[in-house]
Design brief:
Blueprint lengths: L1 H15 L4 E6 L6 E6 L5 E5 L3 E5 L7 E4 L8 E6 L5 E5 L4 E6 L7 E6 L6 E6 L5 E5 L8 E5 L7 E2 L12 E2 L8 E5 L2 E5 L1 E2 L3 E4 L6 E2 L9 E8 L7 E7 L10 E4 L19 E4 L5 E5 L2 E5 L7 E4 L5 E4 L6 E4 L5 E5 L1
Antiparallel strand pairs: 1-29, 2-3, 3-4, 4-5, 6-7, 7-8, 8-9, 10-11, 11-12, 12-13, 14-17, 15-16, 16-18, 18-19, 20-21, 21-22, 23-24, 24-25, 25-26, 27-28, 28-29
Length: 336
């Protein structure tokens, strides 16, 4: 009996400390991939520079690549996919444009466009298949740019400044992973900023909540926000200084009261991180140009999995698979 008990205890210890690994699925494409959307364990889409969109329907084993006609010199920094046929991408700058496909990426139509000078769209998120938001840098130094849709991205409405919180001088957003905005439910749109100042912004509030992350330079601040599904009290932000991507100084913060107050992790991620995601309430993942980290205690302590760099990580919306995308066409999958 004693031997059985000891054996069970050892099994529990081993199962709780099984090493994570990152397996490369694709690389070598001459594009920087910053958009990633995982529909389920089999269907995932990526987007990047040079008008590139990729789609896999077998879990990343095989890929169909498209260069969107007329957008060969554009940068698609974010993508949202609904199924194997339907997806939306964001072309970031002058003009800022949103495009949609319903035939697996063979054809695209522009569903939103703003040609205002200095236009720069950063990221997009959808609460469900109909309600979405796209955000961009401030144009008038007063508020960020926000447009919303309620019909699956067919039409978009720019939100007025008086419905948005004010930003501070030098405060903007990063188009690093498409994850600095979270549409968490009705009237629950959260945005994190960086640069000279870094804040959590919420729609219909006059000012944002200052974040305890490194800031004060154009390369610093929050890059990514994750909100635990079903409980908006639990949030985490990741970022740092992308000019010094191995620096761990003030690169992560957690909140358990909806973003009103923030705490720092005991062991932060091991460098600048452009993306952070909840896998479960306790398990989280983050990635950046200097590596991938995981946490198994709600984000308080982080372990480096690999020094291989990626821009974005995502978990399947309907499934358990976790994927990464990065520079030089890199796409990978996490084994946990």
């Amino acid at each position: 009996m004693v031997r059985i008990v000891i054996f069970c205890i050892c099994c529990c210890i081993v199962s709780g400390t099984i090493a994570q690994s990152v397996r490369m699925l694709s690389s070598g494409t001459k594009t920087s991939l910053r958009g990633l959307s995982v529909v389920n364990n089999n269907v995932l889409w990526v987007s990047g520079s040079n008008g590139t969109v990729g789609r896999s329907t077998d879990g990343g084993v095989n890929w169909q690549w498209h260069t969107v006609k007329g957008f060969e010199k554009r940068d698609f920094r974010d993508i949202e996919a609904f199924d194997e046929k339907t997806a939306i991408v964001v072309a970031i700058a002058e003009p800022g444009q949103v495009l949609k496909t319903t035939d697996g990426g063979a054809n695209w139509k522009v569903v939103y466009e703003d040609s205002t000078k200095d236009m720069f769209l950063d990221a997009m998120d959808f609460y469900d298949t109909r309600n979405g938001v796209v955000v961009g840098d401030p144009l008038d130094k007063e508020c960020i740019y926000v447009a919303t849709t309620a019909d699956g991205g067919e039409t978009w409405t720019k939100q007025p400044c008086n419905a948005l919180p004010a930003v501070r001088e030098g405060e903007a957003m990063f188009a690093s992973s498409g994850t600095n905005v979270v549409y968490a439910g009705k009237n629950k749109i959260y945005i994190v900023t960086g640069g000279m100042a870094s804040s959590l912004l919420t729609m219909n509030q006059e000012t944002g909540v200052p974040l305890p992350v490194v800031q004060g330079k154009e390369s610093t601040g929050a890059n990514s926000l994750a909100v635990f599904p079903g409980n908006t009290n639990h949030m985490i932000v990741a970022g740092g200084d992308f000019a010094h991507d191995k620096d761990t100084t003030l690169n992560c913060a957690l909140s358990h009261d909806g973003g009103n107050t923030w705490i720092r992790p005991a062991t932060p991620p091991h460098g600048y991180r452009s993306c952070v995601k909840y896998i479960t309430a306790n398990r989280l993942i983050s990635c950046g140009t200097s590596g991938v980290d995981v946490s198994v205690d709600g984000g308080m302590n982080w372990k480096l999995v690999t020094q291989e760099g990626f821009h974005v990580c995502q978990k399947a919306k309907n499934g358990s698979a976790i994927f990464f995308a990065g520079s030089n066409g890199k796409i990978a999958k996490l084994s946990w």
